[in-house]
């Protein structure tokens, strides 16, 4: 008797298996998958960042008024700290609550290695905590959106706002300010080999800047024939110039953070007018304003201001010295 091979199935079994496979294939062919949708567009341009606005050149000649000609905002003279009020609340809490922009390189940003907030503005806030609470680490930083922080101050969600936005000639009525802690010339950041040497080369080009009134007004004045891309965050300008959505970035102090992130960028152009920066506080907290101004006065005189500038903003040029304070009392 011949035994069948153990690995060999009967012929009719193989036939049924083949028929079954064919049935499956036939059934599959009867219900084809829906075709992959086809996308429109050629993807040659990246979309603009959220909140960005394009401002076309105006047919009206800009006013021949420089921001630097505006009177420097005067603040309250440093005085003896009180035991109550805003200062008393901060002492009782044990921390200074500071609203900051967390994505402006070298001014207020998260260190990619440590994950901690650092930068020129962050160090200013720590110096206030040093004087008020005896410890520069007793600061609670809270993220600041694209607004000026007035609502956070009004709801007592922050004691002060430190953000890299220049003061305008007409400051907002819902904020009060410290003395000016930084004054920087407005210049341009361009790609190497761009052929742009100054504002005169910006005609019929697109230029990025922050959407705050002071920055837009200054750019409209120095480059009236340029198209402006106004963005809510300074780092949006870095992305825009890297993706070639703009030909240049116009600004002041924050330009140091842009060139530090991309070796293919450079700062060019003559110094035009100046942008000024101050700490924002809630109206009515005069005791806190005077205390902050006292800290800023110390930084000017003991060399701390120059040390902070050299650490964070040296790519803008040699430290010019701290701006002189202007007091109204």
UniProtKB/TrEMBL annotation:
**Quick one: where's region Disordered?**
57-78
Q: Which residues form the Solute-binding protein family 3/N-terminal domain?
A: 95-316
A Pfam match is: SBP_bac_3
Kindly state which keywords UniProt assigns to this record, in alphabetical order. Signal, Transport
Q: Give the domain of life.
A: Bacteria
Q: Which InterPro entries match?
A: Bact_solute-bind_prot3, Solute-binding_3/MltF_N
Q: Family assignment?
A: Belongs to the bacterial solute-binding protein 3 family.
Q: How is this protein named in the record?
A: Glutamate ABC transporter substrate-binding protein
What is the scientific name of the source organism? Rhodococcus jostii
